[in-house]
Amino acid sequence: MNLFRKxxxxxxxxxxxTPDPSTLPQIYGQFKAFRLPLILTVLTMMVGTIGYVIIxxxxxxxAIYQTGVTFTTVGFGxxxxxxxxxxxxxxxxxxxxxxxxxxxxxxxxxEINKGELLLILKERSMLYKIARLKNHFVIxxxxxxxxxxxxxxxxxxxxxxxxxxxxxxxxxxKEHKYPYYIQGEPHTELSMLKAHLSSAKGLITLSHSIADxxxxxxxxxxxxxxxxxxxxxNVITSADNxxxxxxxxxxxxxxxxxxxxxxAQRVTAMAAHPDMENLLEExxxxxxxxxxxxxxxxxxxxxxxxxxxxxTHLRNIADVSVVxxxxxxxxxxPMPKGDVLVTSESKLLLIGTQxxxxxxxxxxxxxxKPEELRYV
Length: 376
Hints:
Elements: H1 2-10, H2 35-56, H3 60-71, H4 84-114, H5 116-130, E1 137-140, H6 144-155, E2 160-164, H7 169-176, E3 181-183, H8 189-194, E4 202-205, H9 210-226, E5 234-238, H10 242-251, E6 255-257, H11 259-272, H12 274-283, E7 291-297, H13 309-312, H14 314-318, E8 321-326, E9 332-334, E10 347-353, H15 354-365
Helix pairs in contact: 2-3, 2-4, 11-12
């Protein structure tokens, strides 16, 4: 085993991620009902083999073969002459075999009709698929918000897992095209482990009950501490009013969406600046637009730190524009000029293509100024 591991490491073979063993449902307990037919089968084969050896002086292999042929009632006949006593024994063996097979088939049909075994196999298969996810979102509770959010995430190719206690979640997942889902209470540690929260980017809780949202925020932050998550999760939730919004933010939510406030803002924008609203609809809410906007973190070690914005040449290399800088203290400077210094742990608000923003991220993460920038 150790030799195989060394060979695999030398060849750089990757091992497919597997779910936490504690999350996998126990499948072996479902086979308890098959113990009796299995034991009776083994006993019958033993008795038949011994009987043929004693009664008709069969060799051991001939006795095993004759017992198997007789027990399964395949009708191959006798492999050697059998005495009258042996034939009576054979008839008894045939009846016993028929009875045991009938019992086994009845047990199998009963277990399949229960549906528990199939549910366990489906859940295990789902957990293995979820274990391969990285930087996904965990969406808690199925409702009208979840349906719309999942549509947008699917269009943006962002992976997600839906958790809901509804026993009919499988049918809902098929109807609304949830690729990954877990049936269970979202605030429990078991559900979070099943959803592979340790590798997730964040969690979205959209329950109509503020108590559910509070419980989830507290559970997620506790999960971070217990499992030593280096980067805090991005927790997004919703609130019906402003007082609930403040409570959820104080409890640890990164973003709290209030449908009433969002509706009012959109209506006001449409009334006051209809052209601007069309622009936002075109570039911010549509998934097929060529342009994207994203805030990119500047690490402490980046070569870009303490460089003037014009010295980075991001527009020339990646064809992106810096339309804002957020300092470490949270102060935001819109439309910065080229002489502005880029400081450590600040954030650049970029507009450009997804490819260009990706190139910019890779450039910023480097410790030494990239070779291609020295000739710009």
